[in-house]
Amino acid sequence: MLAYALKRSFAAFLILIVVSGLTFSLSHLSADPALTIGGEQASDEDIQAIRELYGFDRPIYIQYLDWAGRAMTGDFGESYHYGERVSTMIAGRIGTTMSLGVLAILFALIISIPLGVVAAMRPNSLIDRFALLIAVFGQALPTFWFALMMIIVLGVWWRWLPISGNDSWAHFVMPTIALGYYATPALMRLTRAGMIEVLGSDYIRTARAKGLSPTVVLFKHALRNAIIPVVALAAVWFGFMLGGSIVIETIFNLKGIGWLSYDALLRSDLPVVQAIVLIFASFYVVLTLAADLLNAWLDPRISVR
Amino acid sequence: MSILEVENLTVDIPVAAGTLHPVRGISFSVEKGETLCIVGESGCGKSLTSLALMGLLPKAAIRRADKLLFRGEEIGDLPERKMAHLRGGAMSMIFQEPMTSLNPAYTIGDQLMEVFRRHVTRDKAVARDRAIYLLEKVGISSAASRLGQYPHQLSGGLRQRVMIAMALMCEPELIIADEPTTALDVTIQAQILHLLAELQDEFDMGLILITHDLGVVARIADKVQVMYAGRTVEEGPAQAVFDSPQHPYTQGLLRCIPIPGKTKRGERLGAVPGIVPNLVGDLSGCMFRNRCPHAAPACATADDSLVTGSDGHANACIRPETERVAEAAA
Amino acid sequence: MAMISTPGKSFDEIAQETLEPSPFAKLRKRIFGNYSFLAGLIIIVAIVAMALLAPLIAPHDPYETDLSSRLMNPFWHEVKTDEEHLLGTDKVGRDYLSRLIYGAQISLLIGFSTMLISGTIGTVLGVAAGYFGGRVDMVVNFIINTRLAMPVFLVAMAAVVAFGASLMVVILVLGLFLWDRFAVVMRSITMQARDLDYVKAARAMGCSTPYIIVREIFPNVIGSLTVVATVEMANAILLEAALSFLGFGVQAPTPSWGLMLNEAREYMFFSPWLLALPGACLFLLVLAINLFGDGLRDVSLEKGR
Question: Which residues, in sequence order, are bridge partners of residue B307?
Fold first, then answer.
């Protein structure tokens, strides 16, 4: 168990190094950081001074190592544009993004699991076709377009919901739906496929032969097994939600770290972008580990190697 | 009163090409303490018969019977709720594949106690004691600690023993065992069969054992019912059927296996050539005729009902024994 | 055990066997009986035709501005419509219908090119990993995991900032990012195919490695490959639209549907069709690709078994 944990941690560490290194190189290709800090009005001497002060004249791998070393202690430097400490900026905004992500995945699960179960119980029936239709349509719908159309219809025409900011819970309704629906097709299909397979299995036949009630057979025996891969997939999709937050937060003016990264990119604010990429990558690594652990916990047949 | 009395059981299944008739008028009865073996090759309808008895047929299947009496009461038109009450309680079933018949997500104990708590009492302690008692009865050592184990931690033979224990939890009057030993090693087979016979004696239950293995039949059956293409072709006391098989199909089956003392060294084993016919659509006559060495034109339209001879031994061949023997000799 | 010389088929198999039409007729029925597959195919063909014939069917030049006819309404409105511009005009007076038609070119071009690039990369990586196993597999797995850990959207935006926003850059960047599913699927299939008996036979006969890969494994694999290709193509189209929508994709005045959505945003409350139409086109195209891909999978799955 320990060896396994160490192996995965080491792999995760390597992954984070490569991801952040790649981003670092990209960022430094895109803009001269000294220029960004100095601003357009700065003179050449000022820019040179900035360069020496921040160490931008050092070879790029040295700069990266410097950044990486400090990042490991949680110090992500200061924003080129705002001057604030990056870690503070992120800490203040990450709550919004996390809340949005959690709400979105819950929304997706609340719709996809019951729908998948009912569709599996009556394959090829009307409700099954309806569920598959939703899945196909959901996959094709561009997230940002859906968000904008919702704003027009629900926010402006019907005035049901507020369209910007994050003051009340109502502000989160449309963003949650816009972000969460995209996970629904995959989760619903997996639930449906899993249930169909499980319902045809021998141990369900045994459960019926024992005279257990249909509810017990469906929930205690069937769903319990079919849900295992769904939970793991949901953990991975939660990671995607976090990535997809960029567009949604921008549209709905929710100031989470998604919005922050977009803002930072516009301003070539490299430390912020760098930090947020690292955070997203770390989330992915943690979430896939969580998915594996969830699998092992829910399925007695799997033991963590 | 017989525990189970079945008369003219049929199962029809609509398929793409018409209606399939996998079970076409089967009749039999089982008494307390008696073992009935239903024998036949794959596809003869024996498994569907057992599912039909339990009311576990697929939704599309249509079951009909003139009589379907369990403990003297008609269960053919029983509402599902009442049928579920019988299942696992008074009438239980053991399936063929022990490796996949237990839910991998729950412990053995949970699955054993579940059926008891469903039919007898919700009391966990009582259920637990009963589970331990039966696990020991089926020959599983350290039963108390086994309760916390998961199915994947047990071998095939052990899992089948657990299935048997599970079938016994509520003191059933009838057990239906569908090829319980087919998926197990030969040595384990013998043990499981022995166990079944013992338990049946001890608890005085009726046992229907479904198999394609004549060796199993020889070991354990009181009565034998030979099925072919959805019909019974021969039935009777096990000894009688084995000693003097009357239907050409049974005779063919017995020729396929070497019998110690009877089969001579170097003698060729028999075979029954051909395959099971298509059972879709309107069927008439004896369905064995395309594989029977004694087939005659009359067989195509004959009435293949069982004709009972002396001592309860019946067969469905329309051609008298004497004729066939003469034909064979010629 | 009594050995009976029959193969012991189940009733279902026997019933189906005796009354089935020929394999060719079966295939035809599967293709034409599958309505969603057909619908997808027809829509794709229509959109491709529209893209190819754009110069002939578009009423105007999509780049031609006419500031005197800005923001004209589409034909279903009562005021401010123009016969010349059936679907109205955008903020600088360009004919919307023409821009929508030409937009198909952009989306399809991006979809195909990205799919080709990512398909090549992913296939090479996946087949190498699946066939050679061992160290190669480990390395490829690490690369795949690293790619999956990256917040694609964010890093793609950073790449566009670094290299400049243009169609070429977008295609390259997306192509270099969207190969993961290809790699995973191809790896899994190659691993299965490698162990198949006829491949072992070929190796036993002394066939060289590339020969085996090309002749024996590939035919096995075309089915899954095309399905993944459709999925990734749809993905690429949606991603380009999202990037362009945020301003990190193709640049004005290119008639990309995503960019049109970006430009429509400031007028969305007064002229909602500016937003609705390009989004609907995206939705329709992606839907068609998904239906086609799903149908392809259904058709090829049965054939293969």
Answer: B315
Tokens for B203, please give them.
């608890």
Cβ within 8 Å, pair C11-B271:
no
Phi-psi map region of A39: left, alpha, beta (phi>0 left; psi -120 to 50 alpha): left
Backbone angles phi, psi at B231, to 5 degrees: -120, 160
Tell me the three state secondary structure of residue B111: helix
Q: Cis ω on the peptide bond leading into residue C253 (within 30° of 0)? A: yes
ipTM over 0.90: no
C161 and A31: CB-CB below 8 Å?
yes
From B50, which residue of chain A is nearest by alpha-carbon distance? A209
Cβ <8 Å between A281 and C153: no
Taking alpha carbons only, the member of C146, B127, C291, B319 closest to residue A288 is C146
Closest residue by Cα to residue A296 from A201, A232, A224, A226 = A232
Which residues of chain A does C238 touch, with a Cβ-Cβ cutoff of 8 Å?
142
The B35-39 sheet, strands edge to edge: B91-94, B174-178, B206-211, B35-39, B223-228, B231-237, B314-315, B307-308
Q: Is the per-residue pLDDT at A195 higher than 90? A: yes
Q: Does A203 touch chain B (CB under 8 A)?
A: yes
pLDDT along chain C (305 residues), means of 10: 36 50 58 74 91 86 81 78 78 86 92 94 91 89 91 90 88 93 89 71 71 63 83 92 92 89 87 89 93 78 46
What gap in Å lies between CA C246 and CA A248, rounded to an integer?
11
Q: How far apart are CA C90 and CA C102, in angstroms?
A: 14
Nearest CA in chain A to B102: A203
CB B110 within 8 A of CB A210: no
* Cβ partners under 8 Å of residue C16, min gap 6: B15, B16, B17
Report the 10 Å Cβ neighbour count for B194. Answer: 13
Mean pLDDT over residues A63-78, rounded?
Answer: 84
Torsion from C-alpha of C156, C159, C165, C166, nearest 10 degrees: -80
The number of residues making up chain B comes to: 330
Tell me the pLDDT tens digit for each residue of B251-273. 888 877 777 766 677 777 777 77
> Sign (positive/negative) of CA torsion C131, C135, C141, C146?
negative
B100 has a chain A CB within 8 A of its CB: yes
b/e per residue A161-197 (b: at least 16 CB within 10 A)? bbbeebeeeebbbbbbbbbbbbbbbbbbbbbbbbbbe
| Cα distance between residue A197 and residue B247, in whole Å | 42
pLDDT tens-digit series, residues A96-124: 999 999 999 999 999 999 999 999 988 88
